[in-house]
Amino acid sequence: MSTICAVSTPQGAGGISVIRISGENAISVAEKIFQPFGGKKVTEMAGHTCVYGKVVSGGEIIDDALLTVFVAPRSFTGENTAEISCHGGIYVTKRVLRACLENGAQLAAAGEFTKRAFLNGKLSLTQAESVIETIKASGEQTLRSANLTREGRLFAKIKTVCDRLVSLLSQLAAWNDYPDEDIPEVEESAINGTLSDSIAVLDEILQGYDRGRIFRHGIDTAIVGRPNVGKSTLMNMLLGYDRSIVTSVAGTTRDIVEESAVVGDVTLRLSDTAGIHETGDEVEKIGVTLAKEKLENSDLVLCVLDGSQPLNADDKALLATLPPPKTVVVINKSDLGSANIFADLSGFMYTAEISAKNGVGLSEIEQALEKIFRINSFDENSMLFANERQKACTELAKSYLSQASQALAFGETLDAVTIMIDKATEALLELTGEKITEAVVDKVFESFCVGK
Ligand code: GDP
Question: What pLDDT is attached to residue 377?
Fold first, then answer.
């Protein structure tokens, strides 16, 4: 494979920049541009050693720097690697990088170092993906979860399921392919047992993902309600400052693009997808696919009603479209008195009475969130996923296993059952990266930045 190089520290001036070179010729590229003080030869350096010297290009000294050498396979990528730590100026960093490029290295693609680590068996795919999560981690819980994934927890869990399925598949195949041999029949109850155990493990992982995402990413929140009930005012209350323009003329809310509000222990992501721009139209467009999609894609719906007035037809039509398990009905304008609208809300388990204008009732919303997302009982050990790809593979595997289970219950042939189990296993092998197409690998590493 070619020898690649990139700046591995963030763009911008800092104390130190690290330029990483990896590949068969990494050490000889370093040799051409790095002269250790004291006359040591770069090519004779042992792995995991460091030397002080100067970076030279075209006979000109660029900088004093440290060179660290890693000899294959004992490096992050599994290849020969040289890391030059020079002064962190933007210009000097670029000059060192250019010197590498002029002496036989190519510029690395995004994520190429980590991709090579994966291809060389240094990291499993899930571990590689958690590298990016570690880099992106914005808080303690996220970092801990990324570290757990990097330690291989997710991999180990999935592998246990996979091994059981593979063993079941081999029994089924043996029994099916050699009917004349004396191979014991695979008991239906044994198949069922393996299927339901596996589904349970995958379910547990998926639940951990959904709850973990809330901490990693925040809760995608849609604020809905007919014009003038107080959506913008609620938004301002949540954000704690006047961000949107609040007017008393119906349907004139403007300005909000995307905001995050910290409510209790969680972050609500309030954005344009909240429909706050289009709410006026949206009520008319109830039933239109777009509005439905918005609701489906959000984790939480805050449905604002004016509690000082009886519900009108628009309110009722809107309520009928909302999913109660993820909806908090926010009964606003409590300062104007109550029109006793609770009777119309019997299908909803989460309500909060507030006065957005006076900033009263935030704790009611917090309590509802606590109930919906069970925030306090969250165990970050269950938060193992790094990304959507892994979730999609898990969901696919689970759906195939459920189909296998159904096929069995309906008395279909074991062939049909086997095919489903086989597909589920493939999805899990794709998750762990043990069986994966090049296209998927490329896609995974595209989300990295250059230098990682
Ligand atoms: P939106 O159209 O749903 O975004 O509603 P706005 O937030 O623009 O509010 C419409 C009107 O209701 C404004 O005049 C607000 O000041 C008023 N309003 C909002 N919340 C309350 C509240 O809790 N109490 C009272 N009395 N008025 C409110």
Answer: 60
